[in-house]
Amino acid sequence: MAKTKTTFFCQNCGAQFAKWQGQCTSCKEWNTIAEEVIQKAEKLSWKSSETTAKRVAKPQRISEISTQAEARLDTQNNELNRVLGGGLVPGSLTLLGGEPGIGKSTLMLQIALQLPYKTLYVSGEESAQQIKMRAERIQPSSENCFILTETKTQNIFRNIEEVAPDIVVIDSIQTLHTDHIESAAGSISQIRETTAELIRFAKETATPVILIGHITKDGNIAGPKILEHMVDTVLQFEGDRNHIYRILRANKNRFGSTNELGIYEMQGSGLREVSNPSEILISKNEEDLSGTAISATLEGMRPLMIEIQALVSSAVYGTPQRSATGYNAKRLNMILAVLEKRAGFKLGAKDVFLNVTGGITVDDPAIDLAVVAAVLSSNIDIAIDKRLCFAAEVGLAGEVRPVTRVEQRILEAEKLGFTAIVISKYCKIPKNNFHINIIKVAKVHDVVHHLFG
What DSSP string describes 241-303? Predict the structure, then answer.
């Protein structure tokens, strides 16, 4: 009989303890420590047989290591390719997290049906018939997609040996369990061990594996934090289930940038890629409304034109309200203080509400000037020309500061039909023949004078 050992894991953060205690000393949560029995048996390779010759790693000079980059696998999905950095890297492990019902399984099944490679879609949450019903809604037929409903990793690897897929999708990692661990599926030790087995399989066979993960009520991926350290890429699928747009971000990416953004539109036939997100982020109102301004921002390498909406009204209660959706509330307070101190606008006794349309969150400081313009427009109740956009940062002294890659922002504004863009006077622009009026300003006063005379 193999020896067994009882250990205690925090179900919130994954910290390990020798005995039970009321509070986790790592994450300070109460009553989250549970007992799990770990079987101390010799673990087999991911293959069912032990005939695989073990390779012993030897130290090499860094100059002797081959630098030939392996070709990435095209997912046939431009938005996902952009976020991944060009496609799936052979042997990589990608973790996709998101709220329940946001569309994680739909996105992965849609990609599995479109891929020209042999794909094995392993589901521990749905039956084969349920997956077939969803697949017929997305894409009626696919000869390269294999469906397996299984939760035991030993059986999954046995089927992988028979099918020999090019890509494996696991839905979801919290439903898997292995014989090497005696705890229940979804526990800390099971998640860690099943992920380790999948990593060994991916690295030994150069097969990319995509894991779907659940998230907690705080928005973090469920399971131990080490899960995110073990995988190569962590993707977050965001959005409001009451809205049709979904946003895909990379929180971690060993093979590309984490600044890229993918946008999808949820439809009855699946998720549609949004190739020009500026069209959905700018409203199509024909009327001239005060309190709206357009900003030229960047998400990774992609330029976006987003609409900033502001509402300034007299405070009904004693303390004025400051509310921001999709924008840093502390930065909004800073900009309002600059307008009060440097520009002379009395906003201290007024409620200010700010919203970035489209349900996205933007951290680019280049939208500061558009926030200033929207707030002042609502305060004075004078509409800003729809064909005018902004791209500049605002400093504490009321100065308008330059932002990076301003040329790319100007070209995007020109492509979308804007007639003028307001930027900092100190921006260095190459001498190109832009077909758009470039307005350069140095201080917030200059912006007020230009917009409202």
Answer: TTSSEEEEEEEEETTS-S--EEEEEEETTEEEE-S-THHHHS----S--TTEEEEEEEETTEE
Reported in sequence order, the residue ranges of 2-142 that DSSP labels E, i.e. its strands, are 4-10, 16-17, 33-39, 93-98, 119-123
- The rounded distance, in Å, linking the Cα atoms of 202 and 318 is 61
Return d(Cα 235, Cα 258) in angstroms, integer: 9
**CA separation, residue 193 to residues 198, 209, 227, 384, 436 (Å):** 9, 15, 10, 58, 58
200 burial level (CB within 10 Å; 0-12, 13-18, 19+): middle
Given a contact cutoff of 8 angstroms between Cβ atoms, the answer to whether 207 and 90 are in contact is: yes
pLDDT digits (tens, 9 = 90+) for 15-74: 888 889 999 888 888 988 888 776 544 444 456 444 344 456 788 888 888 766 668 899
Nearest to 294 by CA among 381, 421, 394: 421
pTM of the model: 0.74
d(CA 224, CA 186): 11
The span from the CA of 119 to the CA of 85, in Å, is 21
Name the one residue in this structure whose structure tokens are 């002379």: 344
| DSSP letter for each residue of 320-334 | PPEEEESS-HHHHHH
DSSP letter at 215? B
Hey, is 354 helix, strand or coil?
strand
pLDDT, tens digit (0-9, with 9 covering 90-100), for 167-224? 999 998 989 988 887 777 888 888 888 999 999 999 999 999 999 988 876 667 766 6
User: How far apart are the two ends of the chain, measured CA to CA in Å?
Assistant: 87
What backbone torsions phi and psi does residue 278 show, to the nearest 5 degrees? -60, -30
The residues near 59 (Cβ < 8 Å, ≥ 6 apart) are none
Q: Are 366 and 295 in contact (CB under 8 A)?
A: yes
Question: What is the DSSP pairing of strand 261-267 with strand 145-149?
Answer: unpaired
CB 271 within 8 A of CB 137: no
Return the structure tokens found at 49.
């047989």
Please check whether residue 86 is in contact with residue 208, taking contact to mean a CB–CB distance below 8 angstroms.
no
Which is it for the CA torsion 104, 106, 109, 114, positive or negative?
negative
